[in-house]
Structures are given as C-alpha cells and as structure tokens.
Amino acid sequence: MFDFKYQLKLLPDKPGVYLMKNSLGEVIYVGKAKILKNRVRQYFQSSKNHSEKVKAMVKNIAEFEYIVTDSEIEALILECNLIKKYKPRYNILLKDDKHYPFIKITTNEDFPRIFVTRIIAKDGAKYFGPYVDVSAVYETMELIKKIFPIRTCKRTIIENGNITRPCLNYHINLCTAPCAGLISKEDYSKTVGEIINVLNGKDSIIIKQLKMDMEKASEEMDFERAAFLRDKIIALNKVSEKQKIMTGSFENEDFINLDSDEKDTCVNIFFVRNGKIVGREHFMLENTSGEDKAIIISQFIKEFYGGTAFIPKNIYVPDILDVELLEQWLTMKRGSKVEIKIPQKGDKKNLLEMVKRNASATLDQFKLKILQDKALHKETLQDLAHILNLEELPNRIEAYDISNIQGVDSVGSMVVFEKGKPKNSDYRRFKIKTVKGANDYDSMREILIRRFKRGLDEVKAIEERNLELSAGKFCIFPDLILMDGGLGQINIALEVLKKLNIDIPVCGMVKDDRHNTRGLIYNSEELFLKKNSNVMHFITRIQDEVHRFAISYHRSLRDKRILHSVLEDIPNIGAKRRKELLKKFGSIDNIKKASYKELLSIDSIDTKAANSILDYFGKASLEK
C-alpha cells in the first residue's frame, strides 16, 4: 500500500511536475508547482475548498510521483508535454485539437507559389491565418487565382534557370509561366506583392487602380477588357467581405473568454489577424463546476497553444494565473514577445465582452442540443430494446470489427456508444498477436478474450482496493455487443463470453449486396429494420464507425511499415535524419521528388547523405 504520509514528507521545496495515478498505475492528472511540497500536500488536506472534480480525482489517487526541475518554466514545459503524452482524464483536454488552415506564399523562392497549408515552419515564407472557416479559405484561394496569375505548381523555378514548356494554366491565363522564362522575377514580384496587400486588407489602392483601368478600357471601346477588370473588382470585394475590421492596430491578437453554469463551461476564442476577425472557435469543458475562472483560462491556454501552430503577439483574457510564466513560455514557442493582457476599458474590453456573450449563447445552445439529443437517443435505445426483447436499455454498446488487406496486418477495433453517443475515450485498438494470415474468426476470438479477460482482472483489482469502477478502462462491461458480421462472428463472441462466465447479449450487424446496413441477427434470427427508422440510422452509424476505426488503424500500421522499410534502407540516413526528412517533406513521395538543393536545406543532411537519397531513388544522374 502506498504510504502518502511518508511520501509527502519527502517532497522537496523546489519547482517540478507531479503525476497522480490510480490503482492500475494510470496517470489521471498532471500538474506543475512552484514549490512541490506545498502544492501536492493541498490535495490531501481538508477538501472543503476543493471543486467537485478535484474531490472525485482525490478519491482515485492510489499513488503519485514527481519530477524536480530547475525552474518553473521548465516545469510548465514538462507539464504540457506530459499532458499530451498521457491525456489524463482530470486535466482539461480539448477534444477539438484542430490545426487550422493558413494561406502560404513562398516568398523564400525566386518565383513564389501560393497554397493552403496546416503546418507553419520557419522557412522564410509568409503565412496568413489561421482561418477557422475552411470553405472560406479555399474560396478565397480560387478568387485570388482568378485575379492574379500566380503559379501553384511544385516545381523549383529559379531566375535564369532551365526553361521548360508551360503547363495548361498558362494557356488559360491562370499563370504567367515563369518556368518558360515568360516573366521576369521583378514583374512576378509585383504580382506577389499585390496578393500580400489583399490578404493584409490593403486592397483599396488595387481596387482604385482597377476601376481607373476599367473606365479607360470602356472609353476605348475595349468592352471585353472592361468586363474582365469589372470581374476582378467584384472578386476582390468578395475577398474583403470575408473579413470584418474590428480594430485599428492591425496586430495579430486572440480574445479568450468563457461562461459557466452549474455544471459546464464554454470557452470561446476569437482570432483577430491584421486588425480583422478571421474566425472563432468554442470548446465545451464538461464537469467544471466550482473551478475558478482564472484557473480554467490558464489551463486552456496551456492546452490550446501547446497544440496549435500559430501564437499571436497579444492574447486578451478576463482573468488568469501565472501570467508571467505563461508569457515566457509562449514567447519561447513563438520566437518573439507575447503578452497576455486583461483589458480594463475601451475596444479591447468591449470585444472581450462580446466573446463572453458568444460563449453564453453557445452554452445555451449546447444545453438545448443535449436535451434534444438525450430524448432522441433514449427513444432510439427503447426501440432497440423492444426489437431485441431486452429487459433493460442497452445504455452501453460495444461494437467490434476485424480489418485486413490482402491478408496482411490483421487488426481489431472496439468502439463504444454510451446512451446513444460515441464515447471516444473508451475506443480500443488491438494488433493481432497470435493469428497468422487472414483468419477473421480466430482474430476476433483473440481480441474478445483480451478485452474481457483484462476487464475481469480490473474488476478484481478494484474490489480488492475498494475503488470506483471508473478507475479502470476495461472493467465496465457493455449491455449489448454488436459484431460487424453474421452468425459466425456472433458464435465466436458467445463462445468467449461463456468461457469467461459473462452474460451479455450479442447481435450481428448485417449488410446487403450493396454493402448497406440491412438489419440485425439476434438469437439466430435476422431482424429487418425499417429503412428510415431511428434504430436503422443508429445501427448504421455504429457499423460505419467501427469499420472506419479499424481501417484507420490498419492504414496507420501499414504506413509505419512503409516508412520504416524505405527510409531505413537508405545508406547514411539514421534515425535523426529520417525524422527531419519526414518533418520537412511530410511523406515518402515528397522525399522522392526533392531536389539536391532542397535536401541540403536540412541542417543534418550533408552532400554525402543527399547523394545517398538521390542514388536510392534513382535521381543521382539527373541531379548531377
């Protein structure tokens, strides 16, 4: 048994990170402290001032460990890394960890390209964004292509370089063909500068000049050119309309605020780029009642900016803890000064209040949707229970599938639906260990034995330690098991359950000749479901989800195998170089296409390593 009193006495008066664990050794919370001894002791003292979440967490702490650091900033960095690694259930975890799209202009090239990317690198290029509305980004890109003839190809084109034949885009006036030497670097740069001005919101001069050109063309009776210029003006206005000017500072800023009710919190963040609101996002933080606003915002900032590519110059919040420490951490990540501010009056304060009103409205919508979904899900589960003649509602449903492609890398997956909704945190993947080849029945038998045997072991451990069931991952058994297959798969599941002395009803989800969900098999009888019924939609969703989850795992394993086999076969390319190549180019295909010059742009790649890569992919003669 873990001796808390003895361990608490050993805690040092130094900064560091602490990890709380449950009886199964799983990390359930990660925190950082300026003085470890003071912070960790607080959890085991009087619980009067603890929030409900902290009280629930303390009940499940079976042990803790700590890591001493030299400074508080080191502790903060380590805390963020450990939260990413373990995803502890009692930390604030943002479910919507998006990498927002940016518009990138490769100003580090002689003849820059423009395209959409979700990755920011310190490569000398210009980035605009991030944009939350993905469709608006691509629409803006299409408008820019219509207005400005700029290349989008992936060729490496240098001034006075080799001349090649222009592609179709040149012939339809979408590119000025620098590859064929039909435009100078200076003239091309003027076009790029105009695009940058448009994306910066400085398009009034361009529009004014276009209007003058249009009027001149009309006077000269060149109506075709006048119409062309008119369409350009309309397109430019559309680009401008996608962004609303809110401030006069033209800075990159984020505004964060929240609203809470008796149970949950909604955090809203507005993105302001170059003085314009370019988008917003909200995050629902459930079961955060009693949490201090400053604590929630501080934790949100660590989680959000720990996983996002772009950090603005200024961040505005209503309240916060550890402001200097967070500013120091964000400044390190950004590479330039970042400030977190609490506005007291003026436009910034007003905008922050608007963010709060939006958070409040979103929270109300969230609650309403929950009530509507809850009623629909309950009705669907009642209908399903009636169809299967179950005594109780199947509130927890587990579905299983096996995936293999041409008999290689068989994998299994388990998805979980609780009260009609997917519970992603309980999804599990299984790499088949004991079965050779494409044997779906034996593979299914293996994963079911592993899942329910582990569950029984957890139940035993929890009973011995008198803990709550939530302390384990596998110990909560389903009310219904759905197999993505027919009688054969059902019989395998029943066989495993009988062997382990577990009584759970098992259904099979069957598809028709067109691979659409047709109905269920239960107690050796096929049950047809009404095509547009809620139950049919629900079963189809589960079947699609378990299949998707199995296929995605299979592909990830296959991709890892491909990356491993190809890159490790190249002489002079070790683990560090493999990692940097993939980080730089993103895929094997892009590495294959890379030029000698592009390979040497990576610090760790010398001439010998670059030649090895070119030799391996059969390009050495071309480059040399």
Automatic annotation (TrEMBL):
The organism's place on the tree of life at top rank: Bacteria
MF terms in GO: DNA binding; excinuclease ABC activity
InterPro entries: DisA/LigA_HHH, GIY-YIG_endonuc, GIY-YIG_endonuc_sf, GIY-YIG_UvrC_Cho, RuvA_2-like, UVR_dom, UVR_dom_sf, UvrABC_protein_C
Keywords per UniProt: Cytoplasm, DNA damage, DNA excision, DNA repair, Excision nuclease, SOS response
Start and end residues of each UVR domain: 204-239
Record domain UvrC family homology region profile: where: 266-497
Record flagged with keyword Cytoplasm: yes
SMART domains named among the record's database cross-references: GIYc (SM00465)
Cellular-component GO terms for this entry: cytoplasm; excinuclease repair complex
Signal peptide positions (record): none
Chain ranges of the GIY-YIG domain: 13-92
A biological process term (GO) from this entry: SOS response
Compartments it resides in: Cytoplasm
Gene3D superfamilies referenced in this protein's UniProt entry, alphabetically: 5' to 3' exonuclease, C-terminal subdomain, GIY-YIG endonuclease, UVR domain, UvrC, RNAse H endonuclease domain
Function of the protein: The UvrABC repair system catalyzes the recognition and processing of DNA lesions. UvrC both incises the 5' and 3' sides of the lesion. The N-terminal half is responsible for the 3' incision and the C-terminal half is responsible for the 5' incision.
Family to which this protein belongs: Belongs to the UvrC family.
Subunit text: Interacts with UvrB in an incision complex.
PANTHER family associated with the record: UVRABC SYSTEM PROTEIN C (PTHR30562:SF1), UVRC/OXIDOREDUCTASE (PTHR30562)
Protein's UniProt name: UvrABC system protein C
Organism, scientific name: Clostridium pasteurianum DSM 525 = ATCC 6013
The gene coding this protein: uvrC1
